Amino acid sequence: xxxRLVIILLLYSIAFLGCRKSLEPQPEEGFNFIxxxxxxxxxxxxxxxxxxxxxxxxxxxxxxxxxKRANPDVVLSLGDVGNDIQLYGSKLYIVVNxxxxxxxxxxxxxxxxxxxxxxxxxxxxxxxxxxxxxxxNANIGVDPASPNGKVVEIDTASLSxxxxxxxxxxxxxxxAANNKLYVANSGGYNPNAYERTVxxxxxxxxxxxxxxxVEINLHRVKADNKGNVFVNSxxxxxxxxxxxxxxxxxxxxxxxxxxxxxxxxxxxxxxIYTYASEWSNINxxxxxxxxxxxxxxxxxxxxxxxxxxxxxxxxxxxxxxxxQTKDIFITDAKNYVTSGTLHHYNASGKLLRSFTTGDIPGxxxxxxx
Amino acid sequence: xxxxxxxxxxxxxxxxSTTPLQLLSKKQLQQxxxxxxxxATRFLSGVQLKDYGGIGGxxxxxxxxxxxxxxxxxxxxxxxxxxxxxxxxxxxxxxxxVDEIALYNGDTQTLLQPAKSxxxxxxxxxxxxxxxxxxxxxxxxxAGIKTGSFGLINPxxxxxxxxxxxxxxxxxxxxxxxxxxxxxxxxxxxxxxxxRRENADIDAFRIESILNGxxxxxxxxxxxxxxxxxxxxPDAVIENRLKPTSPELGQRQKDRNIFIQSSLTKQFxxxxxxxxxxxxxxxxxxxxxxxxxxxxxLKNNYHQQEGYASFANQYLITPEWTVALSxxxxxxxxxxxxxxxxxxxxxxxxxxxxxxxQTERFTLQSSLLATFVQDKTKYYQSPxxxxxxxxxxxxxxxxxxxxTFRIRSFYKNIFRMPTFNDLYYTEIGSTLLDPEYTEQFDxxxxxxxxxxxxxxxxxxxxxxxxxxxxxxxxxxxxxxQFRWTMYNLDRVQIKGVDVVIRSGWNVANCLNLDVxxxxxxxxxxxxxxxNGKMTYNKGEQIPYIPRHSGSFILQANIxxxxxxYSFIYTGERYSQAENITANYLQPWYTHDLSIGxxxxxxxxxxxxxMTELNNLLNQPYEVVRNFPMPGRNYRxxxxxxx
Lengths: 369, 642
Prior knowledge:
The structure holds two protein chains of two kinds.
Chain A: H1 2-14, E1 35-41, E2 51-56, E3 62-63, H2 66-70, E4 82-88, E5 91-96, E6 101-106, E7 112-117, E8 121-127, E9 130-135, E10 148-155, E11 160-169, E12 171-177, E13 180-185, E14 197-202, E15 207-213, E16 218-223, E17 228-233, E18 243-248, E19 253-257, E20 264-268, E21 271-280, E22 285-294, E23 301-303, E24 316-321, E25 328-332, E26 339-345, E27 351-359, E28 361-368
Antiparallel strand pairs in A: 1-2, 1-28, 2-3, 4-5, 5-6, 6-7, 8-9, 9-10, 10-11, 12-13, 13-14, 14-15, 16-17, 17-18, 18-19, 20-21, 21-22, 22-23, 24-25, 25-26, 26-27
Chain B: H1 3-16, E1 21-24, H2 26-31, H3 37-41, E2 47-51, E3 59-63, E4 71-75, E5 78-79, E6 98-105, E7 122-128, E8 139-148, E9 152-164, E10 167-178, E11 182-187, E12 192-197, E13 202-215, E14 218-233, E15 251-267, E16 271-293, E17 296-316, E18 321-336, E19 344-358, E20 362-377, E21 386-397, E22 405-416, H4 420-424, E23 436-450, E24 455-480, E25 483-507, E26 511-526, E27 548-558, E28 561-570, E29 573-574, E30 584-585, E31 588-601, E32 605-614, E33 622-624, E34 627-628, E35 633-641
Parallel strand pairs in B: 4-7
Antiparallel strand pairs in B: 1-6, 2-3, 4-5, 6-7, 8-9, 8-35, 9-10, 10-13, 11-12, 13-14, 14-15, 15-16, 16-17, 17-18, 18-19, 19-20, 20-21, 21-22, 22-23, 23-24, 24-25, 25-26, 26-27, 27-28, 28-31, 29-30, 31-32, 32-35, 33-34
């Protein structure tokens, strides 16, 4: 009766109790990438889920997780929170924030060349054969309990740190123009006292020569090919909104305030593609804008997604524009804890294709052999 | 009383309960491979222990997939609160002073209870050690020591005294220190590496005193408790950080908990009442030396206070029919040195009305709970007042002449308020949050049979249940990862089956065996659909809930020798809402073994020595992703009673 029935059920369910699957070791995959887009997925903090995808623009094939596939023996793979990716020469540089490292890969094969340790590293840029990386941690020699961050210089030939210099608190974006480096100080650890300056570093002496007052909580910095430096501010979520600024690297001062919220941007000659996501406490939801500006025409402003498909983006998190085709790429991080999406638009702003990515797709760089 | 009789007595309580009840007795608790209450809950059906690993790691329980905030923990009938985040770390509760653990799904069986006991989806009752004096003795001492892996040193001391025939007093104290280091293995198809868990040290001290008094037609108790601990908070295991650069760069936490609670129960011919009072004062210090702010490394201080009073009344209308009315009043306050903190205070009033009709073959119990919650904040807006009335009904029925087969069923609708963290932690207020509701439907049966053979008895509880969690409160980043906001988003539908089998054996007159099997099936699916808002992973199993889990326990006694073997199984799970390979967690199963012996000392003294071996097969596993659990480890215990 009942007892017997339950015992039968129990035995039946025990049959379902799986043992551990034994996994077959994966051989290293030999990629030969020629023309495409590398996409770095951040992965949520403490998850070790940073991953690298490659979108082949010639074949249209989207390859997931190419770092792990090319380097299967690296323990815990690419690591925790991929924060920036840039290409320099034939090498790919990936800044992995919580894993305290910069991964240098062969951009053709995605194979690891070297790992450079740097605590709490954030963003990377290049100038005259050197890489410059921002870090929240204090310069060695400075009191380790100092709140000020630093920028390090990496020699791209030896792939080792050559010089370091102190900047403001929690430096994020970095860009170089006119033999100078521009570093956005955020001060994000102190919402009661955000930083509001860009540090200007003379690349010859590698010393901070000026701080340009911009706005609170600065984030990304990018330079165009005419010596203009662009920087966006995050705002404070209460009274100060996100904003966008242009700095002239001759005068080292803010020459234009866009008065438009910008979370992220991509510079393609004089065209600046931006998007903004801002939380509204009144409507209890995020609002998004996708605007294109121009560095030469002050009044220029247009929506670059033209087919209304931006409504399907829940949380825009990355942007890139192909220099040749002018195709636009926008990533959707959704709720940050599920696979994201890469949307591919053509030059006239119509959605062409979408791909499933890793968690929090955020940073892109084009590669052509 | 011999073992089998005790088991049977407990069984009758379990079997007649209208809601699923599981008990762990003092004898079981002393023989199980457990250091804290958290370890012991692994042996309960339907419970998922969320364990961040190590002696000092956070340990909370999630019952029937409804989330850890839906379970209320009671110590001697009074709730252990945490208004800040609703989580009670069961790793902090030593088994040294606990006589019994009872787990209820739905309402408890006693009507004379504070209204608070009706206010959660499930509840766990811990009963403190109550002194019993026999043969004219008036005092008892117990001294114990535990040591073993992780550099554990854990001496404890208990003193109980009968002051007069109406009054007993006891003092229990304990010190625990461990470096907490352990090796763990990280494996994948392509690598297998060993690393060491660091910054896992703990130093804890507990002292408590209980006065138990008898009065005419009643009893009273006053309990004074003090706990202090300092511990490292090991990070998740992070790539390139397997070897911390320096152990002192880890995050630290200090806790200090003080409470005083009293209760008084008095019974008249048909009327009885219980009065309960509590004041708690909790302090938490958190530091993170990796986040260096303008004023120095990040440090936060949290001060919480709770005041609580309850008056419960019960009246027997007829011998079969009982009614009860209870009223509770609670005050909570949280201070924290966080930027833009709103300094909330919460006033909660609970009123419950319950009735029970019980005959030999039939029990029907139902309750209504009215909840009034008012929050006040020093700065910024506070949410609107909340008031809710929620019902529960349960029954147990013996359908046949056969006395030990009973059918039972319960329905309960309840909610939990958003915690202070949910409402006020983020810079952006989330004060528009709604409570998180759960609805539970349960249908099951209990069965027991005694035999006159080597097998003395078998008992069985099986329940199938369907739970819905609505407005589940989840944290989601708002505009970037560093700015989180709280939403009422998820809806979870849970279908489950719990099976609990116990049996008692007596072989060759000297070998007593208790054999138990637990099995749980849970399908806990994300059922979120919100109009106009995007939802993800609908229809997939929610994170960290295995479809299959269970345990097997064998306890053997041969005269003064005892042996315990347990096997715990947790099936495959996913670490995130998306059920894909990247989030897949392998099943894990551990074998634990313990062996001990009782000795007589002098004329009245007793001594017990015991060895525990845990994770015998040294399986590497993680309960929470990137928080590895220890491999094979051991403990030695010795206690002396005199």
